[in-house]
Predict the structure.
Amino acid sequence: MIEERGAGDLSERFCAAWEALGGEAALAESAAAAVAEVARRLQEAGAKKIVYWQDERLEAAGLERALGALPLEARPWDGAGGIAFAAAADAGITWADAAVAATGTLMVAADIGAGRSVGLLPPWHICFVRAEDVRLSRSEAWRALLARRGGRMPSALHMVSGPSRTADIEMDLAVGVHGPGRALAVVLRGGA
Amino acid sequence: MTRGFVRRSLAALEDPSLRRAVRFATDRLRSSKARAQAEFGDWEALRRRGEEIRSRTMRNLGRYLDEFAEKVRQAGGQVHFAADAEAAASIVRGLARRYGVKLAVKSKSMLSEEIRLNEALAADGVEAVETDLGEYIVQMAGETPSHIIVPALHKDRRSIAALFSRIAGEPVPDDTPSLTAFARGRLRELFLQAGMGITGCNFGVAETGSVVIVTNEGNGRMVTTLPRVQVTLMGMERVVPTLEDLDALLELLPRAATGQATTSYVNIMTGPRRPGEGDGPEALHVVIVDNGRSGLLGGKYEAALHCIRCGACMNVCPVYRQVGGHAYGWIVGGPIGSVITPLFEGMEGFGDLPQASSLCGACYEACPVRIPLHDLLIQLRADDAPKGPSLKGESAAFRLWRWLMASPRRYRLALRLGRLAQAPVKRGGRLRWGPPPLNRWLAGRELPALPRRTFREMWPELEKEAPADD
């Protein structure tokens, strides 16, 4: 299921960089395994409220079904009315169009059904990305993202590298000051 | 000429906890940057690329700004041009009135300080709250930022805890997680209530019409996700031609600022929210501000516009490291502040800032886009020079100096007289006292005494030992 870390490929490099920034990473061999891993971690953390993108990739991975089996309240992002719920949620689940292995960066694009609030307001951001969408550099990842979107930039592209952080008080690092303090990246290998 | 810098820096020099904090923070930032540069590899090539991008942008600034504005409009945003600070502030005031805004939340914007936006909005009864943790601390304390990356660098945790306890009406512990959690809770409410989000702009991409904001805390995302209206303040020199150019500058900025390969968040925003999207601003206004910048284009100070506001020059500056940011008297301190403050705010009030440099060139070495800061400082001194010497008797002293130096005989005589004169105040090879104005200098420093024999006096013997030329 969740495989041992070997040497080398871009997914592993991404995970190492993401973890070095204080994020958590999981490599999964299938969409089903990825969703099961997320469900396990949500349960372990005692999460009560979950908000997630209305996204065909999350749907195809069977996220809704997996969350439905858990003792928690899970709601898809449904626009402006969902802000209050997202602000009260324990975790928000999104999907990155691309990732940068060199810096440990997820490229999270806003869209219909894909609210900016979901990966921002809850204290825990969980984000899926396909292994084939992990590129070495930022510019390669941009190209992949723009190709998928017909060359048009999304209204908001958030390049996310680990949890929210600050060192404004005596240069002492603290996470979760405005954005999520906990950030989980789930990399899907072998198609979704 | 005012001696404002000297007065302000004396206050800083007499504050040991400030000096400790400044030294600690700048040491940390500097060593992180050095590590990040080494890890990157060919940092020098990247710096040259950064310099090339910035100077190409300035050469064609009009064209790139037109392209940027056009692309912002195509994406559904609105663009306003402001000639000066007053015009910029009044555009934002007008927008606040138009949208009925009473509370605005702000992510970090040095430009908003430059145009005194908070005061302007307050005059209309609009409250503008800073949400970057450091800026929030500084605003609540009624102070101003002392470093562009670490605004509250001059404040220690005890004073921050005291400040937060006063706001909370109950004790807030002084550990970092408690202080951070307090600010998070407090500001979260404001993000949800505010009618307007005001942001700065690290870069504006001409090719796509995107506004780019680089942050670690995520407050830049909050102010562009929750309020109905987004106002982005952009200095006209912030434009970047293409995404490819942006990529290079995004390699440089975080490494130079904090030693990070990337910040936690880089937000690229292209227009307001689109039909069907549930959050993000319904309206996006980009206010492009000149306020003295265009006057530098094509002139000898154009390179000052290349600055990407990383703060690296401050962290290495032997002057900034002693006195901190407030001594500079304006919103940007350190070497770049000593250059742009007199250029933007006038030589009358700030003509002494270019003197606050040893011209060691550490700032140039640190600058990720290779701005020759030391050259600009010398140029500013030269421009200021026709107004006459800053100290009484300075020109007489230099006339005497020239007279002595112009003749080997007089120079030798002066050395001999100097040796006689120093005898009563010389101890252990050092001078312990000197006549004014030397006494002020000696109060904090040592000056080696003239040697018993100078090199010139030894030369006749040395010459005999030297091997003869072929």
Summary: Chain B has a mean pLDDT of 93. Residues 95 and 144 of chain B are 25 Å apart (CA to CA). Chain B touches chain A through 61 residues (CB under 8 Å).
